[in-house]
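Form 7-S
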Amino acid sequence: MPASARPVDVTVEHVRSAGTLTRVTRMEAEGTGGERAFVLVPGVGVSATYFEFLAPTLAQRGPVFALDLPGFAGMPRPHDEAPTPEYFADRVEAVLDRYGLADPVLLGHSFGTQVVTEVLVRRPELSHAVLVSPVVNEAEAT
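Output:
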């Protein structure tokens, strides 16, 4: 980060939704409170720490919410249903609602792109998303 970067505060909280927990790592640089937030959704097999270099950089522009969804990064797995993009989208929406995030930038990586896309379908008022290395169904690649 540039030498002019502001210090970043980091807090870790949990959001409960339908009996499961999502870990939320929040990062915010001093003086960025009212700017657009970023919600980071990692892919399968990685955790919010995947964004360890990106998140503090984004925090210079607005608050960052990096998610560890149920079943990933040591979070308890869901017991009563098979996880799908829709299932995880429910958890992302619970985070949006818990923190009152009206129009954040949603950033999904790999499988996280499917989750972010589902959230976008459900909430057409959301206007900003970044899909990094999206997963593509080979049968529908075109």
